[in-house]
Amino acid sequence: MGKIALTIEDGRVKADIEQVSMEEMSMMLTGLAAMVVTRAVLMGASADQVKDAMLDIALGVTEGLTDKKVEELRQRKQKGNEDEGV
């Protein structure tokens, strides 16, 4: 069974990931996004506000992604640094 535990430490999201494939991680991300959407709607956000916010989040996360950044992440992983915090 795969597991992702998210915590916030010093203003950063920290992830403890155990035996999770990319497919399973995508499923979990979709489920988490659905929970965020539901909560936002129940708190009074309109459909357009929710869509805009979710798009802003997705774009913000990938904004700084470059081939150089990809290579740096892969090199850190090879060195044994498995910190996948955001």
What would you note in describing this structure?
By secondary structure, this protein is of the alpha+beta class. The protein is built from 3 helices and 2 strands, in the order ββααα. A two-stranded antiparallel ribbon has the order 1-2. 0% of the residues are buried. α1 packs antiparallel against α2 (47-62). The chain has helices spanning 22-42, 47-62, 67-78, and strands at 3-9, 12-18.
What does the main sheet amount to? Answer: 2 strands, antiparallel
Oligomer: single chain
Through-space gap between termini: 24 Å
Low-pLDDT ranges: none
Question: How large is the share of residues in beta strands?
Answer: 15-25%
Helix content: 55-70%
- Which overall shape is indicated by the principal axes computed on the Cα atoms? globular
Write down the secondary-structure element order. Answer: EEHHH
Structural class estimated from helices and strands: alpha+beta
Gyration radius (Cα, Å) is 15 Å
How many DSSP E strands? 2
Total of DSSP H or I helical runs spanning 4+ residues: 3
Strand order of the largest sheet: 1-2
Give the averaged pLDDT, no decimals: 90
How do the helices and strands line up, and which of them pair or pack?
Blueprint lengths: L2 E7 L2 E7 L3 H21 L4 H16 L4 H12 L8
Antiparallel strand pairs: 1-2
Features:
globular, 86 residues, two-stranded antiparallel ribbon, alpha+beta, single chain, 2 strands
Brief write-up:
With 86 residues, the chain is α+β, with helices and mostly antiparallel strands. It has helices spanning 22-42, 47-62, 67-78; strands spanning 3-9, 12-18.
